[in-house]
Specification:
By secondary structure, the protein is of the alpha+beta class. It has helices spanning 7-20, 44-52, 71-83, 90-103, 106-118, 224-257, 269-300, 309-335, 346-360, 363-376, and strands at residues 123-125, 140-145, 148-159, 166-171, 179-184, 190-196, 202-214, 218-219, 259-260, 263-264. β4 and β5 form a beta hairpin.
Amino acid sequence: MDFTFTEEQQAAVEAAKAVFADVAPDGVPSPALTPGAVAEDFDRQLWAKLAASDLLSLVLAEEHGGGGLDAIALCLVLREAAKVLARVPLLEHCATAMAVQAHGSPELAAALLPGAGRGTLVLTAAAHGRSGHDPAELSVNARREGTRWILDGVQTAVPWAHGADWIAVPAHSGEGEAVLALVPRTAEGLTLADQVSTSGERLAELTLDGVRVPASHLIDTPGAWERLRQLLATGTCALALGLGTGVLAMTSQYTGKREQFGFPVATFQAVAVQAADRYIDLRAMEVTLWQAAWRLDAATGGAGGPLPSAGDVAVAKIWASEGVRRVVQTAQHLHGGFGADTDYPLHRYHAWAKQLELQLGPAAAHEEALGDLLAAHALA
């Protein structure tokens, strides 16, 4: 398959590299040495640079002041962000903006998208449900009351919620498909309880107790939540790829300089074979990621395939969840005790990789979902 990127997509990568060039992975305290969150808020200074470089408006249409690019371009930028452990809600913000642009009312789009593109308004999404295992849309009940909808329920582990202005909350109304409500963080009846991720970032448990939102702030288009969910999953795969790429580069540099018996350890066959295996993991993560991102864009344009796009996303998640774990474990092994040194950034990458693995879920679950899709769609 030809995964050649367009000039616009390549330009987005170059812009992202320029913005992330000065970002240090150890810019906040180590999660291994911090009992709570490593910081109260995300990196606002980096956020402003992303906005100034038009990377926050990358996926918005020109009518909203954006670049009109697609999920592939977003994943390319996310890959670069993860290489330096960028502490910004880039995935959740852009994915939610894409959902509002594609399915939201004109009133909602006008209220959110211009500020989202400029970075003056921050969006995030609740995608983990009550426990992280049940479908997110089943954790919140939505019922209509006149011109408003009333939301009740709980969503856990919502990333960057404390710093966001609006939160996309999936819910069920008991009729048809899931709906998606855009809720202001300051809405009456919405409370946020602190949670901390494996990587040391501040998460939130959302409790919605009679939260009222106008009908124009609720998206009930069939497939809107499923599309957002798949985009969030695919973006997480892009983060896993970027993190793994950064870790393998660190490992290559270290083993090329570390000598034993008078030779760099990178020249030892056992070391080279392990590094080569992890390189193969990264290439598999990469090809399945671009396949999933392309299918999401193609599905938006009306193009189909032998399986729904959920099948391609499931394959990407299988490789990303297992691949990123194998990459960081091998990196720790090849670094020896130095990999656990809290003055060296590798342990931070390990913590972030574990958080991404938890977000993606176990490969066995995605294999089962893929099997169900194969059983339901006969292939010619």
